Hints:
Number of strands: 11
Largest sheet: 5 strands, parallel
Helix content: under 10%
Distance between the termini: 28 Å
Strand content: 25-35%
Order of helices and strands: HEEEEEEEEEEE
Radius of gyration: 13 Å
Number of helices: 1
Strand order of the largest sheet: 1-3-6-9-11
Structural class: mainly beta
Amino acid sequence: MEFLQAAIEEANALSNPSSISFDIPGPGDVPVIYPNSPLPRIEMRVFINGASQPGGWVELAGNVAGAGADGLVFAGDRSKLKGMIIGGFDGHGFFHCNSSFTISSSSLSFPCSSAEATIEGDS
């Protein structure tokens, strides 16, 4: 969906840390976002909070994102990911390029980068 791409582009344009929250209307317990092209690389520190969605989860499915497409690629240090289900991408569903990253309450499609991530329980 275009709103996620726009939110990532906006976060990249900011010099301060930012947060991407969700309130996707529609039926079902877990809304699914199907990007139809690769998402932009996340350059700045950002907190992607799928737990902000009523129901506590958002799925990012890369089934139609294209050949070789990655899902969320984080280059910004000290970013966070919470309440996201990520999979179906031809490339990596999730990839981070820095040594400081926090993941909590998420289900990720690996392979992931070799840099160490902090995995937190529900909070």
